[in-house]
Design goal:
This protein is 44% helix and 19% strand. By secondary structure, it is α/β, with parallel strands linked by helices. It has one domain: Rossmann fold (3-Layer(aba) Sandwich).
Length: 135
């Protein structure tokens, strides 16, 4: 199963997702894609062996993924302080992959019904959803 983790800015959320995914599913093909090189580098430090950066990398990875994980902003053009292009958002949105998106209430995107919860709790919930997909 090909799991693509996409993040931007500093890549801290992506790094945590990458680390947990690799710990729980060492057999999975995990690829990290950063909207910038700092995010990619940070996610690679979590142990991923495949990483790429930028718009085209997101578009290609979205086509080939079975699962895409990242903050909800990756499907919203101009999110993550402008790092997500409309082409990235469309590619992720149109992908046949299962999308596991973490509802981060940042970057002018607020999710109704979302209570303020620690990022760690969101990541644990994402891992529970990934477990259902992996079965």
């Amino acid at each position: 199963m090909k799991i693509v983790i996409i993040d931007g800015q500093g890549g801290n959320l992506g790094r945590q997702l990458t680390k947990m995914t690799l710990e729980r599913y060492p057999e999975a093909d995990v690829q990290v894609i950063g909207t910038n090189s700092a995010a990619t580098t940070n996610m690679l430090k979590a142990g991923a062996v495949q990483g790429a950066t930028g718009e085209n990398a997101v578009i290609v990875a979205a086509r080939r993924a079975d699962v895409i994980m990242g903050p909800i902003g990756i499907v919203i053009a101009d999110a993550l302080m402008g790092e997500v292009t409309s082409q990235m958002a469309v590619a992720i949105g149109q992908s046949d992959a299962v999308r596991i998106l973490l509802p981060m209430n940042r970057c002018e995107t607020l999710v109704a019904g979302m209570k303020e919860v620690p990022t760690g709790a969101l990541i644990e919930d994402a891992m529970a959803l990934l477990a259902r997909v992996m079965q």
